[in-house]
Amino acid sequence: MSNTNPLLDVSGLTKHFPIKGGFPIRRTVGAVQAVDGLDFQVAEGESLGLVGESGCGKSTTGRLITRLLEPTGGRVTYRGQDITHANRKQLAPIRSEIQMIFQDPYASLNPRQTVGKIISGPMEINDINPPGGREKRVRELLEIVGLNPEHYNRFPHEFSGGQRQRIGVARALALEPKLIVADEPVSALDVSIQAQVVNLLQKVQRELGIAFVFIAHDLAIVRHFSQRVAVMYLGKIVEIGDREDLYDNPRHPYTRALLSAVPEATVDEEPRERIRLVGDVPSPINPPSGCRFRTRCWKATEKCATEAPPLVQVEGNKPGHLTACHYPETEPTIPAPRLSKDPEAAA
Amino acid sequence: MFRFLVRRLLGALVILLIISAVTFWLFYAIPRDPAMMSCGKNCTPDMLKQVRHNLGIDHPIPVQYWYWLKGIFVGRSYGDFGNCSAPCLGYSFANREPVLGTIMDRLPLTLSLAFGAAVVFLVIGVGAGMIAALKQGKWQDKVASSASLLGSSLQIYFVGYIAMYFLVFKLGILDNPSYTPITQNPVKWVSGLLLPWLVLAIIFTANYTRMSRSQLVEQLSEDYVRTARAKGLSRRNVFLRFAWRGAMGPIVTIFGVDLGTLIGGAIITESVFSLQGVGRLALDAVNKSDLPMVLGVTLLSAGAIVLFNIIVDAVYALIDPRIRLA
Amino acid sequence: MTSTDQQPFLSVKDLRVHFSTEDGIVKAVDGLSFDLVKGQTLGIVGESGSGKSVTNLTILGLHDRDRTAIEGEIVLDGKELLTASEKELERLRGNKMSMIFQDALASLSPYHTIGTQIGETYRKHTGCSKSEARKRAIEMLRRVGIPQPDMRVDDYPHQFSGGMRQRAMIAMALVCDPELLIADEPTTALDVTVQAQIMDLLKDLQQEFGTAIIFITHDLGVIADIADDVLVMYGGRCVERGTKQEVLRDPQHPYTLGLLGSMPSLQGPVDVPLTPIPGSPPSLLNPPSGCRFHPRCAFAEKVAGGLCSKESPVLEVVDGRGAACHLTPEQKRELFADFAGTRHN
């Protein structure tokens, strides 16, 4: 990653969704703090993974950097241009360079359009006429994503789930983007099909040099796909770093707990010791003071409640590996300490 | 719930205010002079001026509207035409009596017509829909579906006259439509309105059959219905306690809208059966350019629709705990 | 079954479930047999359309009877279920056998409180009073780890978090101490940390009550965590079975091998591409001839005479272990070894 000239530079990114209420006149009475002060960069051709559990703000982040949503605060800079509050007109040239792939390949394709029409849509909107015509380009794209170019005139319902996701990829590639934000692109697919699509995305990323922000809840797939990974919890990044550093030497207790909870398809003689997090993720309307993870953390002290830990390179981290914790983990690898299994203990 | 009702009722008042203002203003776009009509054939310019003054239409429109609004709260005097005590919705040029009184005279018939028909089409429509949903694909379903298709393509003036001809004049099964207040003679009330109820219901039933069938079919394929079966509950129990509950919401919604509309006057039905309800009143008022009456009837129907919308939302919240009223 | 000394509590023999649809006959399950003893967990692995969910709805008798043709035998504790009357099945469901589903929000009634829904199962099968049922519901909520159960019992499902809803569903399924619990992807919609909590809960409850569990999932990682035995389904048939150690360490069917190759791992090398299974799952309306996996199989041409596309391989089970594949053991040893080299775990 080059800090000097990143493709995408996000700093202090914040999104609060207002909550309406009150009587007799409705007004804003609070906010869902979906994303609260994110800093990260994405270099050209690099893949950054965003992981976290539902409600951590990873999908909102994806929508903020593609400017499907407007940030409440902070700054999003794409290739040196501030797009935080850019209007439709200013965004138009950038929209073709930043594309998005969605989770649900059924819902995100118009069922009344042919595949050819779907994939050439972005070219029409942006009035782009590739040499040889749009149809030729669409056929090339179909070839790239592993579909039969002859299927140009078919409709989405004639394809399987995995094939539909390939159509989504082809559409995203139509404008030769520099950055693709993929929001859970494989989680709706069968295991055997997931691997096909992951391999396709990997091929696209490498051969076409496209940068990715890869949003997923599956830690193994993120590790497989992204060189750098950021772990989110309740609207904040708790840890970010190169995948080897992060997965082999997680410093944030949450990262460690998350990794230890992933079931692996291996049968060990001795069952892997697991960290069991108790309770539920607190509400983003009224997140805990200080460190947001403290209510479920086995290391939390007074300090964690009063002081929000900054996201920094804590002692022992390699460069680029940042952790937001007052008491970072020191043991290099899993297994880690075991917590009480009684959920009522925390309640 | 209280907050919801207060907020919605305030909103309803604003809506009614806007509707009255728009109706008021639109009326003057019609190139007809109500004073001319009230004044009669041998009208001198002086008399016309006097009539205008008495009717209160010699002021600019906003001032007239203000007087009208004021009349609702403090009443109003119409000179030679007489007085109209609060709440005064205006004075009918054509009928020479206060608007509100006329409407109140006609309302019992319209309410009887609306509620009676509603009971008939709700029971028959939803009943047929339930049977069709339970017997999906079987003959009962096909009969109900065909009947509802036929019903929804019929028109009142067609069915109404045919039914009159056969059931009343030829066969004499039903009484000639008439209105007797329920307080006077309940039996006559029913027998006089039975034909209009049935005819109105034919038109509306179809909608309810289709709606309740599709809603129930959808609910029966919901995951929680499967869970209820997996718990060991019987098919009947699941149908009544689970599927039916979910299907109720949309049915209540269209029922509220239909009832609100009917209370504003079933113009065609009342005309076909020569019943002097609110619908006929509205028709006559429009023909006679009787602004205060038009305004009064418009507000009544708008008020009924707005009110039933609020009721529907409140009932919805009772049916579905996920809906929070605010 | 590994523990042959115990009588099977549930025995499914040559089950065939065929639906008639407008497009033709769907062979959702086509000749499936397995046994399950008390206190054991059978993991059924398969992708969409493998027939795994249909199998379990059929055990409970919740399939659409008008449109389904069923052959075979399902025996629960000596009772034949396929010939049982609806009334008899209603007595068994929720009582002796119960089921938990994937999407707890959709699977719980939005119109009734959690307490009502748990209590009504108990009342149906014990005939107790409303207040007793409520007490039982609170006790069950406490047992599945819902904090403040006496207050939460009157909540509606939408007021619960995803993990708590799944706990409530488990409480509902276990309220009558069933002897067979069928869990259909119960953790798929949950986050990993919550998934871990739920799997712990199921394991604890199983130890306490000796429940037999059928755990349906597409995730071999979950299987490794919770199952004793594994049954891999593909296209309505069982392609491989054995203990989880046997199946995960030494897969004997190319499909199982392919599933393992499709899954990235948290450890090991990062820059090795995944080895996915090409193509898509088969249509059950018009399944492939012979071995249903052969159009996607990397080794089909290694079998002489195009046997894979002509003849359906037989699943021979010895000591609970077997795979339905035409490859010889020698071929597998050789071919799968290469393949295993690229595996991620």
UniProtKB/TrEMBL annotation, chain C:
- InterPro entries in alphabetical order: AAA+_ATPase (IPR003593), ABC_Ni/Peptide_Import (IPR050388), ABC_transporter-like_ATP-bd (IPR003439), ABC_transporter-like_CS (IPR017871), Oligopep_ABC_C (IPR013563), P-loop_NTPase (IPR027417)
Q: Which CDD domains match?
A: ABC_NikE_OppD_transporters (cd03257)
Q: Name one Pfam family in it.
A: ABC_tran
Look up and give the membrane topology term: Peripheral membrane protein
- Record's keyword terms, sorted: ATP-binding, Cell membrane, Membrane, Nucleotide-binding, Transport
GO terms in the biological process aspect are: peptide transport
Where would you find this protein in the cell? Cell membrane
Provide the Gene Ontology terms for cellular component: plasma membrane
Per the annotation, which location comes first and is thus the protein's main one? membrane
User: Key word Nucleotide-binding present in the record?
Assistant: yes
Q: Name one GO molecular function term.
A: ATP binding
Question: Locate the ABC transporter domain: which residues?
Answer: 12-260
Family label? Belongs to the ABC transporter superfamily.
Under the heading PANTHER family, the entry gives: DIPEPTIDE TRANSPORT ATP-BINDING PROTEIN DPPD (PTHR43297:SF2), OLIGOPEPTIDE TRANSPORT ATP-BINDING PROTEIN APPD (PTHR43297)
Q: What is this protein called?
A: ABC transporter ATP-binding protein
- This protein's species is Streptomyces argyrophylli
